[in-house]
Design brief:
This protein is an alpha+beta fold and 371 residues long. The strands form 2 sheets. A 12-stranded mixed β-sheet has the order 1-3-4-5-6-14-7-13-12-10-9-8, with helices on both faces. A two-stranded antiparallel ribbon has the order 2-11. β12, α9 and β13 form a beta-alpha-beta unit. The radius of gyration is 21 Å and the shape is globular.
């Protein structure tokens, strides 16, 4: 007989079990990694939305933790206007295929109850592009599941900081932000945010929020200026104190070649591959606001961010851009990026169908730093 499952929202007493779930469920690939949220899962969740709900699934009889997921609500740009939307993430389910499928369907029934109490008419989420089995399941339109509608491919580009820091090109001067510039930075983000779909609304109050922008100081923003004001901006967002990427292991081929790669890595200005159990020292290049075609400002900002990151012992900068965003091509051509491809989906139940049908063809630009 199948176990009965109870779904509960994590609280102060159970958030540790949510962190346990993340520590015990790796993301498989050439490098198997754990995405951990130490020392408090709520610290990481709070950056993703004004509303955040961490859900846990327990066996009713044994209280064994079977899985979990998260639902967030935040303001983002939709067709050029600030709109409350949602994000679904952190999905982890233990057990075999049959149990995982059954638990997944039950999880969506529980998630629907939370959705009906919230404001978001639909959600975005990302699935690894080559995870075909999961994508087929989610796109199958099974009973009780929301509709998963693919939008476009998202590239998370991982830039080695030492390599990028060594590239100097003619371009505008870059200066660190200051507290009195945050209103102007927010206005700049608003201007470019309206040109994209799903970019978060970064008001000056949000930029100053210790919860939504945890770990960010005004000086972590980098700006270029011209006679009209701020020409371009970004942020070096170091989240290592509350979000970590831990190496669990390597594929057989990479494990064999890792010692040799680590010998030549300094010559190539590449980070060494850490041993299993160690963190990947990375940070996000977030809050990016660049006019299309302004390659000089983009390269100047990335170069300065890389230099600052390298000084902090950060090996990689990560930035997320849609595959059809011209800025992604500039970065891939200029830097030796590792490319991580995923598919952006809009996810909705029947009450979100009408608003989803209005989404126009603007390039998607979700902020990977909060996903």
């Amino acid at each position: 007989m199948a176990a009965q499952v109870d779904f509960e929202l994590a609280d102060a007493q159970t958030e540790g079990q949510f962190r346990q779930m993340l520590r015990e469920n790796a993301l498989a690939g050439t490098i198997n990694v754990l995405l951990t949220r130490e020392p408090d899962a709520f610290h990481a969740a709070a950056i993703s939305g004004d509303v955040y709900e961490l859900m846990l699934a327990f066996d009713r009889d044994t209280r064994q933790l079977l899985g979990g997921g998260a639902r967030f609500e935040f303001d983002a740009y939709l067709n050029g206007e600030p709109t409350c939307i949602g994000y679904l993430g952190e999905l982890r389910i233990q057990g075999g295929l049959k149990q995982r499928r059954r638990l997944l369907l039950n999880a969506y029934r529980a998630m629907r109850e939370q959705h009906d109490r919230g404001r978001a008419p639909f959600y975005i989420t990302t699935i690894i592009s080559d995870n075909t089995s999961t994508r087929r399941l989610l796109e199958a339109g099974l009973s009780d599941m929301p509709t998963y509608q693919p939008v476009e491919e998202l590239l998370t580009l991982t830039i080695p900081t030492k390599q990028a820091a060594g590239i100097r090109a003619p371009g505008p001067d870059v200066t660190a932000g200051s507290p009195d510039q945050l209103d102007e930075i927010a206005a700049r983000l608003d201007r470019t945010g309206r040109e994209y779909q799903f970019q978060p609304v970064w008001s000056a109050a949000t930029l100053r929020s210790a919860e939504r922008c945890r770990g960010i100081e005004a000086s972590d923003f980098l700006v270029t200026r011209d006679d009209a004001g701020i020409r371009g901006a970004c942020c070096l967002w170091d989240q290592r104190t509350f979000k970590q990427t831990v190496v669990l292991g390597y594929s057989k081929r990479l494990a064999r070649s890792r010692p040799f790669f680590n010998i030549v890595a300094p010559i190539l200005r590449q980070p060494k591959l850490p041993p299993p159990g160690r963190n990947i020292e990375s940070a996000f290049l977030s809050h990016l606001s660049i006019d299309e075609g302004d390659e000089a400002a983009l390269l100047a900002l990335v170069g300065e961010a890389a230099r600052k990151a390298a000084e902090r012992g950060i090996d990689y900068l990560m930035v997320g851009l849609a595959a059809r965003n011209p800025l992604s091509r500039v970065l891939e051509q200029r830097f030796h990026c590792h490319r991580y491809a995923s598919m952006i989906y809009v996810v909705y139940w029947d009450d979100g169908r009408d608003i989803v049908s209005t989404i126009d063809n603007r390039i998607a630009h979700p902020e990977v730093a909060i996903l």
